[in-house]
Amino acid sequence: MGVVIPLEEGKNKQASVKPLVDLTKADMERVNQLILSKAGSDVQMIPEVANHLISSGGKRLRPMLTLAAAAMFGYDGDHHIKLATSVEFMHTATLLHDDVVDESDLRRGKSTARMIWGNQASVLVGDFLLGQAFKMMVEVGSLEALDVLSTAATVIAEGEVLQLSVAKNMETTEDDYLQVIRAKTAALFAAAAEVGPIIANTSKAERNALKSYGMNLGLAFQLVDDALDYGGKAADLGKNTGDDFREGKITLPVILAWRRGTAEDRAFWRDAIEGGQSDDANLERAFGLITRYGGLTDTIARAQHYGMIARDALAPLPASPWKNALLEVIDFSIARVS
């Protein structure tokens, strides 16, 4: 069982992604149509595997960021549709690959693609989606947008490898952890937000504002996800609570509990994480230690810190419904633990 973490600011409990959903609804319908079209193939298994994950109920926050970031600067062409679809395909490919690397059984409440079609199909269909994403980027014809998204793809892969290198290593520092989530999660958020102003031909300052917003929103989002693994519900996570513990992932709640604990506590963590003794009894003890040493509340405090940086990044931009919706996404991302 997890521990529900109350937020200090009651207003955050009302935060919703709905304003962003409503503003981007028409464009997201076009994105969804393009997703279905580009996920198609004469090879029957490709659309089967792709659509299994694509239709599984994710909020598609990242492509909505691309659409909103373009619209808030008055963009009125069609390129944002292809870029948003590229962003979603990059994200979907990452999930397919992640589930293989992490040996995950559940994704968004459903069996993972690897559990149904196997690891090889999951990896190869992920590669197919990446290929389709890059084809659409080329069709847009913006070298700057292509550079931003292709760089993000490289950084994400580096983050995956870095996470592997620190897995089951209790000497992992908070700085190491932040480096992993900055690459694995925040880089795509940043790229998704940055390509909007690029195709809208905005100033360098406006482009950097959206990039900073996306990067810090992504950090906050992942910090909350990692707290939810020890303090949430499977329905909210899209996976089983405690999966990070079972997989030996070193996330911030664990790092804080390890560093603040006694020698006996640290011996437990070594046995559980490095020694693979991650049964239900040890998971319960891990919950207890993380709660005792403030691992959850301080992880959320870190998320709120990055959320404030994201908010400040947008502060110089003119007021608009788009800006308000993007600001509310910050509160929504953090309020998921309430």
List the helices and strands in order: HHHHHEEHHHHHHHHHHHH
Q: Determine the number of helices (DSSP H or I, runs of at least 4 residues).
A: 17
Instruction: Quickly count the domains.
Output: 1
CATH classification class? Mainly Alpha
Q: Give helix % range.
A: over 70%
Q: How would you state the average pLDDT, rounded?
A: 91
CATH topology: Farnesyl Diphosphate Synthase
Report strand order across the widest sheet: 1-2
How far apart are the termini? 15 Å
Tell me which CATH architecture applies here. Answer: Orthogonal Bundle
Rg: 20 Å
- State the fourth-level CATH superfamily: Farnesyl Diphosphate Synthase
Class from helix and strand fractions = mainly alpha
Beta strands, count: 2
Low-confidence stretches: 1-13
